[in-house]
Specification:
The protein is α/β, with parallel strands linked by helices and 335 residues long. It is built from 14 helices and 10 strands. It folds into 2 domains: 243 residues, NADP-dependent oxidoreductase domain (TIM Barrel, Alpha-Beta Barrel), CATH 3.20.20; 62 residues, no CATH class. The mean pLDDT is 94.
Length: 335
């Protein structure tokens, strides 16, 4: 069993965190079954967010009776101290708990610090002093913000996208966190579905002793794979290394990561999928994306009004309208 301790928090779990964003897409009964099976199978770290609609409520309903045997990380997108308090109280109520193990600022455009005028970090300190949260974390998709947080000495955990498609700069962030005794929580460990071999994804991340991957789980088949890795963790081998190199050659660069911060789109385009359809359609049976539903979704790209909203909100600085047009042209070659 591969274990990881999240820096100075002392939280020690196996390298299979449950990313609970996808459970908002399934029924309450189905989510309860998945969450309970995850716990029974040995997963004890659950990551959610106030922003993930009913995800917190589903975790609270399914796992409140084993609260003392699990770790819960959740997030706030608050803009000020008043919103911070309201969102924290809502999370506590929905999760059916009186404390959060790790409370994280959710992808802020800057690194909150004491005295910055926002009052956000001061609100974190007060909540920790009151015992409402135990550890302070931050999540981000912007490398510069994550590096600033890692250098600040203010954060006990940093959550950032990390997979075998990572750049050298992103790997350096992981090393910086290890040096500074900061827990590193890896989101997008499957790169939003572009990585299709979970064993290779797991084995790559297992090389980094301070990294805890949180796998976005929506289906029982996915859950079964990760539960299996607890007792029989995959080890990186030559076949995996060859596949990783092929994927890096194909996928690294200016591609949509599927984070969804570009939404909502005024033209109702499903940007996180449509902007990377060229990659998705080559990594799954073509028929998956050639049905009438996806044809209609891709045609919506023609309704793009070039407002620039998606471009301005992309944490990776992508020219999203251009990506959409390129993917639509490519998609039409298949239909």
């Amino acid at each position: 069993m591969d274990m990881v301790t999240l820096g100075s928090t002392g939280i020690t779990v196996n390298k299979n965190g449950f990313g609970a964003l996808p459970v908002q897409r399934v029924t309450k009964d189905e989510s309860a079954r998945l969450l309970r099976k995850a716990f029974d199978g040995g997963i004890t770290f659950f990551d959610t967010a106030r922003f993930y609609t009913d995800s917190e409520e589903k975790i609270g309903s399914a796992l409140s009776d084993v609260r003392d045997r699990i770790f819960i990380a959740t997030k706030t997108m608050c803009a000020n101290a008043e919103e911070f308090t309201a969102q924290l109280q809502a999370s506590l109520r929905l999760l059916k708990t009186d404390y959060i193990d790790i409370y994280q600022f959710h992808n802020p455009p800057f690194c909150p610090k004491p005295g910055d005028g926002s009052g956000l970090y001061e609100a974190m300190i007060e909540a920790k002093a009151r015992g409402l949260i135990r550890h302070i974390g931050i999540t981000n998709h912007r490398l510069a913000v994550a590096i600033e947080a890692a250098q600040s000495g203010l954060y006990e955990t940093i959550q950032f996208p990390f997979s075998y498609l990572a750049t050298e700069s992103e790997i350096e962030l992981v090393r910086l966190c290890e040096k500074n005794n900061i827990g590193f929580i890896a989101m997008k460990a499957l790169s939003g579905g572009l990585i299709t071999d979970s064993a290779a994804a797991y084995a790559f991340l297992a090389q980094y002793a301070n990294v805890l991957p949180i796998w976005g789980i929506q289906r029982e088949k996915e859950l079964d794979e990760f539960i299996g890795y607890i007792s029989d963790p995959p080890a990186l081998n030559d076949k995996m290394r060859e596949m990783i190199e092929r994927d890096r050659a194909q996928l690294c660069g200016s591609f949509c990561r599927g984070c969804g911060y570009c939404l909502p789109c005024p033209a109702q385009i499903d940007i996180p999928i449509c902007a990377r359809m060229s990659l998705m359609i080559r990594r799954a049976p073509v028929s998956v994306y050639l049905n009438d539903e996806w044809k209609n979704k891709m045609r919506m790209i023609e309704q793009c009004i070039e407002c620039g909203s998606c471009r301005s909100r992309c944490p990776y600085g992508l020219d999203t309208p251009s990506l959409l047009r390129e993917n639509w042209e490519d998609y039409r070659s298949f239909i």
